[in-house]
Amino acid sequence: MTADLSFGHFDILGDFVRGRPEFLPHLQWLESLDAQELEKQVRVARQSSVLMTVVMLTGACNADCTICYTARRKKRNELSVEEIKRVMDETHALGSRLLYIPGEGEPTLDRGLFDILEHARMLGMDVIMFSNGVTFSNDAEAFRCWQLNSEEFVQRLAEYPVHIYHKLWSIDSDLLTEMMGISPSIYQFADVKVRDHTVRIPRGLELLLRHFPRHRVGIETVVERRNAKEIVSTIIPLVEQLGLKSYIEPILHAGRCCGVFDYDPPPDARQMLGKWLSRQNCRRVAYKVIVLGDGTLTYGMALNSQFLRQFHVDAEIGNIRDTISREGDLFRLLHTDQSLVWGRYQICGCICEELSAKFGSKRAGLSTGRQGLVPV
To answer: Based on C-alpha coordinates, what's the Rg of the chain?
Structure first.
């Protein structure tokens, strides 16, 4: 708020505090400062203005998930390793100590991955990375990318400060490979002892459990109609028994799933999952810098430049290359880009899903309302 006020975003801040009156006293105090004192406050705030850096890496992928929230393809203008390291340097100077890699495709296919992890280690940044696990499971895939077998690849990753969330949408091998759109022969499985019984899980997850500290391993699950009951009956108990982190999320109707509602789970699924379900109140005010694979700056991981232009017609869409090529200041770009400033204050629910569903429902001939999606 301090920086945004100094850059003149009075209307956006005014709208925000009308909906969140608990922030009004702070805004009033900022408005009472003279220009010199406000600038002093900005210099102080600048040093802790970013808490998390989100970078997507390559769009290439070795799975073919129908419900993927991205376009799942490699772009011609993807950021180079040096550009990503520059992003990390600039956000680190603004206070970020966490690099978050959700994957516009499959991050383990990005040839710059280890350079990026090494840079994170040098800066003292922790890393959270999401993976479909194919490279961890399939020796041929690991060797094709890294000239290592799967276990050697996992062992090398374990040397870095990275926490990995492995895709686990089902422990039924046929259903899992169906949902991921891959051949059953590509994804391999292994047995793991859980208390008094044995469970068959992806081999890559078993390797992570063997070579990583348990607190650095998690599973990622998207809830849809084919696996909703299994998540409650099997996957959540497995997570608890193994002592893993979890990221269990509803479908995001963006990317390949934009306008596609065929896979939505039954209405009672959200109630069944309760506290386990993520993204129920995603807070944009969490000071994220989100950089897509082509360098686009966005305020939502699933909101690409097409979405941003759809909802911010008059705004210039910021690109990280603007600061790199012109030797500019990322801090200034973050507080002058109207769409980024606006998005920073949208803290009611999941704005990625809200905007994506609106965009997709128009394409699908639906409208959104309090009762959900209904035919137009």
So the answer is: 21
State residue 52's pLDDT score: 93
Beta strand extents in 57-115 (DSSP E only):
98-101
Fold held by 51-363:
TIM Barrel (3.20.20)
End-to-end CA distance of the chain: 40
Both tokens of 356, joined, read 């994506």
The more confidently predicted of residues 298 and 125 is 125
At residue 365 the predicted structure's pLDDT band, cuts being 50, 70 and 90, is very low
Q: Are strands 372-375 and 162-167 parallel, antiparallel or unpaired?
A: unpaired
The secondary structure element, H or E, covering residue 369 is: strand 366-369
Please state the pTM of the whole predicted model.
Answer: 0.90
- Determine how many CB atoms are found less than 10 A away from the CB of residue 22: 7
Domain ranges of the chain: 1-46, 51-363
Task: Compute the average pLDDT of residues 95-120.
Answer: 95
- The residue whose two tokens read 């040096």 is 82
List of residues 6+ apart from 119 with CB closer than 8 A: 85, 88
pLDDT digit string, tens, across residues 108-127: 999 999 999 999 999 999 99
